[in-house]
Write a structure and sequence with these properties.
By secondary structure, the protein is α+β, with helices and mostly antiparallel strands. The protein has twelve helices and five strands. It has helices at residues 11-21, 26-33, 37-45, 52-61, 66-75, 93-106, 125-129, 145-150, 162-180, 183-193, 233-236, 248-255, and strands spanning 111-114, 120-123, 209-213, 216-225, 239-245. Pfam families: HTH_31, MLTR_LBD.
Length: 259
């Protein structure tokens, strides 16, 4: 089991780690949070114990994820401020209904919902259709969609631009690790990249997923959607990955020829 930096250490060390991760000086953060640099220094060195309100204020200006904010509050001796529920829990009914509606509305194009570690939460029928030929063992929960995409018994044999796809996934995961401090994301990035050398930049505006389907190659571009201003841990960590045709061949394969 991996833990984030906020799982260990006293509150001042954790806040300092996040400040350094965001490349901010004490003066920068003090000005943003409207506190004195002396007080911030005392908090970081453990000479002053911050209030829960101060912890949350500093976390907000450091863009600390909600899960890690709760851990920092615990380190400071306070109760977590942000609730966490399973999607099946009653308080999440409206959010769960919204996710299902988005997935259904995106058909006939593929769309899926993933958590912070890219494990599958939900998907529409078009997304499941792309998994034809994947080893059933790889589809036993929990399903990590990125591992499935690059696994030799997953989608890898059907991805026409596999090296380019793997490289951009690794870059994205490392960027997410830098933003969240979640070591599991860095480990997943290293696993996916393997011994792959960094590929030269392509002239394409985006890196498509090029998937062989019979004699054709389906090409998709993707967008990511998250909940706006979430105050709940689970919702803050969910993302909807929606795929769109990158060319007319793919569009017609999914929707049929224009009438």
């Amino acid at each position: 089991m991996t833990t984030s930096p906020a799982a260990q250490g006293h509150v001042g060390e954790l806040l300092r780690d996040w400040r350094l991760r965001r490349n901010l000086s004490q003066l920068d953060l003090a000005n943003r949070a409207d506190v004195s640099t002396r007080h911030l220094s005392y908090v970081e060195t453990g000479r002053s114990r911050p209030t829960s309100a101060m912890v949350l204020r500093l976390c907000a200006h450091l863009d600390v994820p909600l899960r890690e904010q709760n851990q920092i509050l615990l380190a400071a001796g306070f109760a977590p401020a942000h609730p966490e529920h399973a999607l099946s829990d009653p308080p999440m009914a409206e959010a769960n209904a919204a996710l299902e509606a988005i997935l259904a509305a995106h058909h006939p194009y593929p769309a899926l919902v993933v958590d912070r570690h890219w494990e599958l939460v939900a998907a529409n029928e078009a997304a499941f259709a792309l998994l034809d030929g994947v080893d059933p063992d790889l589809l036993e929960p929990p399903v990590n969609v990125l591992r499935v995409s690059v696994h030799p018994r997953g989608l890898a044999p059907r991805i026409a631009n596999l090296d380019e796809w793997r490289a951009q996934l690794a870059v994205r995961l490392r960027r997410e690790h830098d933003a969240t401090g979640d070591r599991a994301l860095r480990e997943l990035a290293d696993e996916i990249a393997g011994d792959l050398d960094l590929l030269p930049a392509s002239a394409a505006l985006v890196v498509p997923l090029q998937l062989r389907a019979g004699d054709a190659v389906l090409s998709f571009i993707s967008t990511t959607t998250v909940f706006g201003t979430p105050r709940e841990v689970t919702l803050s960590e969910l993302a909807i990955e929606a795929f769109y045709p990158a060319d007319e061949v793919t569009r017609q394969a999914l929707t049929g020829p224009p009438r």
